Amino acid sequence: MPDAQVMTVTGLMPASALGVVDAHDHLFLRSPALPGDEFEDLERSAAEAMDGKTSGLGAIVDMTPIGLGRRPNLLRAVSERSGVPIIAATGYHRDAHYPAGHWVYSADVAVLAERIIRDLEIGMDPDDWTDPSADPDPARAGAIKAGTSYHHASDAERRRLEAAAIGSGQCGVPILVHTEIGTFGHDVVTILEGFGIAPHRIILAHLDRNPDAELHAEIAARGVSLEYDTMGRTKYRPDSELLDLIEAVVDAGHLDRLLLGQDLGRRSSLRAYGGGPGLRYLMETFVPRLRRRIGEEAVDAILVTNPARAFALETASA
Ligand SMILES: [Zn+2]
Q: Is the whole-model pTM more than 0.90?
C-alpha cells in the first residue's frame, strides 16, 4: 500500500513517512483512576515530545480516549512545536476510568458511535464531550480506543466495543483495545469479529503484562496486532522479560503482528514533569538491546513497517 495515509492531528500524511512509531502513549491525561498523576501542561508535554524525537521517535500515537483529559488543541500545539506527527484517539476506556454516573455508562450504542464518528470525520470534541454543543476542534482522531476489564467485559464495555466497531467500519481506522493485565484477548477478538471487524484492524494493548508467548502466538495467528509497552516498568519486571517475550513471538513466526508503545500514562513517568523513564526510554535504552536480540531488520518491522500498516486508513472517504 504505497499510498496509504494516516490521519494525524495536523491532517493526513503518508503512513510511510511516520518513521519509528510509538504505538501507544499519552501527552495529556487526567483520570479518576490515577489521582495526582494527571499531566496537562503544554510546555512540559511539548518538551517530552521533543526529548522523544531527539532519541529517535518519528511519530506518537496518543491513546488518551474520551473522558480522560484528551486535549486536541494542545495535541496540535505539541505536534507543531516538536515537529512530531501525532495520531490521536477517539473512543472510550474501560469502566474503571469513569466515575459513577458518567454518560458513557448510560448512552446507547448509537450515541456512543455518533460521537466517535464525529471525532473521526469532523474533528475531536474540545473538552471530552462535556458539552455536546461545543464546536469540534479542527484536529481529527485517527484511531479508536476501547477497553475491557480483568478477564471480562461489563455490559457497558461491550456497548462501547460495539460503538468502536461501528466507527471503525465507517471510517476505516483501527481499534486498539486496552486489555487488563493482558487478559480477555481472545474474547475481545471474538466480540469485535462478531461486530464485523476484520482481525487486521484490531490491536490488543498491554498483552505483555501477561507475558505468555504461547498465548500471544495463538492470538497473533488470528491476524491481530499485539502492542507491548512494559519496557522500563522496572518495578514490575525487568526488560529482559519483554526481550524474551518478543524473541519468542518472533520465533513463532509473528514478527508482522508486533507493535511497541510506552504507555506513559502518569505524570511521574515523564521526564519533563520531573519523573521517568520518559519518552526517550524506548529508543535510547530498550531498542539497542532489542536489536542485539532479533536484529536490525526485525526491529524496523516492529517500529516502522507494522505501525504504518496498522494505523493506515482503509476507506475512500478518508
Ligand atoms: Zn494507555
A: yes
In angstroms, the CA 99 to CA 96 distance is 8
Specify whether the CB–CB gap between 230 and 208 falls below 8 A. Answer: yes
Q: How many CB atoms lie within 10 A of CB 234?
A: 11
Q: How far does CA 178 lie from the centroid of its chain?
A: 8
C-alpha of residue 23 to centroid of ligand 1, in Å: 10
pLDDT of residue 273: 97
The phi-psi region of residue 151 (left if phi > 0; otherwise alpha if psi is between -120 and 50; otherwise beta) is left
- Please tell me the distance between residue 39's alpha carbon and the centre of ligand 1 in angstroms: 13
Beta-carbon contacts of 292 under 8 Å, excluding residues fewer than 6 positions away, are: none
What is the CA(83)–ligand 1 centre distance, in A? 22
- Centroid of ligand 1 to alpha carbon of 93 (angstroms): 9
Tell me the CA–centroid distance for residue 88 and ligand 1, in Å.
12
pLDDT tens-place string over residues 15-69:
999 999 999 999 999 988 888 999 999 999 999 999 999 999 999 999 999 999 9
Give residue 86 CA to ligand 1 midpoint distance, Å.
Answer: 15
